[in-house]
User: Fold this.
Amino acid sequence: VEIGCVELVERRPTGRTFQCYLNPDREFEPGAQEVTGLTWEFLADKPRFAEVVDEFLAFIEGAELVIHNAAFDIGFLDAELARLDGYGSMRQRCTVEDSLLLARQRFPGQRNSLDALCKRLGVDNSQRQLHGALLDAQILTDVYLALTAGQGEIGFASDKPVVSASVARIVVSTDAERTR
Assistant:
């Protein structure tokens, strides 16, 4: 129901962001409403994924995406792309780095949720009362930079854009039922 991205170049936020709310074409679970603060009434007049796909893909084209629990979000985005003809998959368009996997390598056996990482790495997440995609992407940007601190000095710096991305999602069913 929401996509939020923050662009980084040379490990610095550029100020460019992408954010949109999406109409899921259905009511969603009350628990999801509590977590996101979004309601069906708010989302009813928002565009569908097909209406924003070109703008979203132009924003991320060729970038390295940093996503916390990437397999989950990429799965949802790939499912949406599969419903449209000719768009391929996310991994055909960009590379993906999973900050959850990075965190598990650096902090094995510990909780590595975004909130746990904020606390461990000293990242301020006090504005995160609800789960919103753009806010989560902004927080993830700081977490990712803290997780990978020092890499630029040892030869990993790049001028290739990095996009910290977060997708707030609503799971309607655990079977093959469409989420929109």
Remarks:
- The longest helix spans residues 133-147.
- DSSP finds seven helices and five strands in the chain.
- Residues 152-157, 167-180 have pLDDT under 50 and may be disordered.
- The first strand starts at residue 2 and ends at 9.
